[in-house]
Amino acid sequence: MAKKKPFALRLDEDMMKAIEKWAADEFRSTNGQIEWIINKALKDAGRLKSK
Questions:
Q1: Residue 38 maps to a domain
Q2: Which of 5, 9, 20, 23 is most exposed, with minimal Cβ within 10 Å?
Q3: Contacts from 33-37 at CB under 8 Å and sequence distance 24+?
Q4: Does any domain span residue 8?
């Protein structure tokens, strides 16, 4: 597994609530959901190679 680097992220309250709901709907943690969203966006933009 790749090494993870912690960092602070500031989100607007409504955005955070939406992410928390989405995460719960998909049985993920909020952190896991944010990672999934970023990973998908990077792959879709061609900025990250698929494994």
A1: yes
A2: 5
A3: 34/9
A4: no
